[in-house]
Amino acid sequence: MSLADKITMLMSRPGGDNAQKDDVPWWMRYAGRGLGTVGSFIAIILGLINCTGIILMNVSCLIAGVWQMLAGFIVIVCEAPCCCFFIDYVQTLSDRIETRPYWNKAALYIGLALPPFFLCFLSMSTWFGSGLIFATGIIYGMMALGKKGSRDDMAAMATAGTPPGAPAHDHTVTLMEDPDVWRPN
């Protein structure tokens, strides 16, 4: 595959042809990808700054900085593989991640962002760098939740408790009065 083919394929990815991703607004897809790309670059740089904690004999901040740089690299591989095109397996890994549901990406990014907070809590570089990766996970989590219901659906749920078109249940019937509920088929 030539470099031009790879670039063309990368530019078409945010629109994706996954059925689950059709109901997500275009701006949210680009916000997740943009925040993931820019935030992971910043996380790598701040993780390097965080590694200077070894000068003060703070080993936990060194480990947090290395973890943050690794997390930033993983997010770049997933969100912007064109930044790492010199590594052979990056495109296949990115394609595999792209076919996963949004909640998988959200769980991965949030899981990658949390350990530096616990290791080096008082460092602003940890808060900002891992916070950007965490925010990317939150955006993907919101994308996994999907669209909000219509105003009519929300009003019906607030008043009657059942959405329009769903069968209404009689809550005054007890378990013993309705044999269809307790009798095995």
TrEMBL record:
Claim: Transferase is one of the keywords in the record: no
GO biological process: endocytosis
Keywords for the protein's UniProt record, in alphabetical order: Calcium, Calcium channel, Calcium transport, Cell projection, Cytoplasmic vesicle, Endocytosis, Endosome, Ion channel, Ion transport, Membrane, Transmembrane, Transmembrane helix, Transport
GO MF term (any one): calcium channel activity
Membrane-spanning ranges: 35-57, 69-90, 102-119, 125-145
Source organism superkingdom: Eukaryota
Subcellular localization(s) per the UniProt record: Cytoplasmic vesicle, Secretory vesicle, Synaptic vesicle membrane; Endosome; Presynaptic cell membrane
Membrane topology (UniProt): Multi-pass membrane protein
InterPro entries noted in UniProt: TVP18/Ca-channel_flower
Gene Ontology cellular-component terms listed: endosome; presynaptic membrane; synaptic vesicle membrane
Quaternary structure and partners: Homomultimer. Associates with the dally/ magu complex.
Similarity field: Belongs to the calcium channel flower family.
Protein name: Calcium channel flower
Lineage: Eukaryota, Metazoa, Ecdysozoa, Arthropoda, Hexapoda
